[in-house]
Amino acid sequence: MSAVINSSQRLNPLDIRQGLAISQERMSSLLKVSTKTVTRWEKGERRPSNQDTLSRLAKLKEIKELGLMVYTPEGFKEFLNTPLPVFNGRCALELLQLGEYETIISALAADYEGMGF
Description:
The chain is 70% helix and 0% strand.
């Protein structure tokens, strides 16, 4: 149980959401929780505790951090919202909704290494 608590303390939902430049509604959809739950987390009234939610939140944090290493905040927002050939004409936010985190991480890593698509 302590590992879950420690993870939830390091994962700041507000910081992650703002870094991804998405609404609370989109964040709640990605995490499969209610918008009210996201609001409570952001206000510090509660912390994420479900292991699946923590896992999804950790992946979103990883994508946010890598994305902001590769792009400016505005460029990262464009990356997330633009359909790209590497994603078969879909945008990264669509892939996030499908849980295809590794596909996005791979594309960001390729861009970081200068081998972008």
